[in-house]
Amino acid sequence: MPLPTSRPRGIRPGLLTRLRVPGFRTLGPGSVSSLLKVALDVAYVLLALITGLMLILLVVGIFIPLENLDVTVSNDEGGTAQPLTRALLIFALGSISAYFGGFLLILTHLRKIFRTLTLGDPFQPGNVRRLRQIGLILAVVTGGVWLVQGLVAARLAPGIMDPQGIGELLTPVFSVLVVFVLAEVFREGARLRRESELTI
Predict the structure, then answer these.
(1) Where are the domains of the chain?
(2) What is the C-alpha separation between 92 and 144, in angstroms, rounded?
(3) Single pTM value for the model
């Protein structure tokens, strides 16, 4: 006499594996990837507009007069005022432009990756290169933010703004490592696909 299985009462065998949301796919046209591609396109346009605006302000900042203008940095315990020099203005606008420009490059590569996901063909050698470039750009942006905040805390607002510690770099560094690991996963997938095509 066979022993009864431990599956929940009232659930037929294989029912859970057959439960699917109608039309819910992760790859190909009309899939989740295509929806995310549209969201990335919208974010790309908005970020391009912001980056362009910051570059225009950077150019304008070279020529506008800056007489009798101060920058105030404050916290709960007090604040400090510094004269707004042209070098400080260009440094601030340049840093912000580089920050948004870095993420604009990341979105550029992500859009190309999701285009291959929408086509249902993710394991392409180009995606490996794009993921590595995303990881490199993210590392540069993370290091730049850490350096700029340290300079601002030391020169512009000493004792008011705290520089980022090493512990605050753990999450960004982890993200960079995850991107490089994903690049290796895609590289292995592309290799297996190439071997499969040669075998066929």
Answers:
(1) 26-195
(2) 12
(3) 0.74
For the chain, what is the largest distance between any 2 Cα atoms, rounded to a whole number of angstroms? 95
**What tokens does 181 get?**
């690991």
Tens-place pLDDT, residues 79-135: 566 667 777 888 888 999 999 999 999 999 999 998 888 887 788 888 899 999 999
* Closest of 75, 93, 76 to residue 84, by C-alpha: 93
For 39-85, write each residue's pLDDT tens digit.
Answer: 999 999 999 999 999 999 999 888 887 776 666 666 556 556 666 77
**Long-range pairs for 107-110 at CB < 8 Å and ≥24 separation?**
107/40, 107/43, 107/44, 107/47, 108/44, 109/133, 109/134, 109/137, 110/40, 110/134
83 — phi, psi (to 5°)? -65, 140
| Consecutive H or E run containing 73 | strand 70-75
Instruction: Calculate the CA 121 to chain-centre distance.
Output: 22
